[in-house]
Design brief:
61% helix
C-alpha cells in the first residue's frame, strides 16, 4: 500500500490515508486529497475549480481590453505572471 507523505508540502503530519491500486480511481483520488477529513465532495471541488477558471479568464480578458484601449501596456502579462506565483 502507498502512503502519501504530505509533510513535505505542509510541514505538518495530517492523518495518513491508506489506499491500494485495486481501489476505483475516484476513491483513490478522494483518499489522496483527503476529502473525508476536509469535509468536501466532488461537487464542491469541481465548482471551486470552475469558479477559479472563470475568474482567471475574466481577469485576462479585462486586461486585454485595457491594453487594447491603451490603459497600461503590459498589464496583461504582469497580471498573468503575478497570478501564477
Amino acid at each position: 500500500m502507498h502512503v502519501p507523505d504530505f509533510s513535505v508540502f505542509w510541514g505538518v503530519y495530517p492523518t495518513r490515508v491508506l489506499y491500494s491500486p485495486e481501489m476505483p480511481i475516484l476513491a483513490r483520488l478522494e483518499a489522496y486529497f483527503e476529502f473525508q477529513r476536509l469535509g468536501t465532495n466532488w461537487k464542491t471541488e469541481i465548482l471551486a475549480g470552475l469558479t477559479t477558471f472563470i475568474t482567471m479568464a475574466y481577469i485576462v480578458l479585462v486586461n486585454f481590453e485595457q491594453q487594447r484601449l491603451g490603459h497600461g501596456r503590459g498589464a496583461t502579462i504582469a497580471t498573468i505572471r503575478r497570478s501564477v506565483k
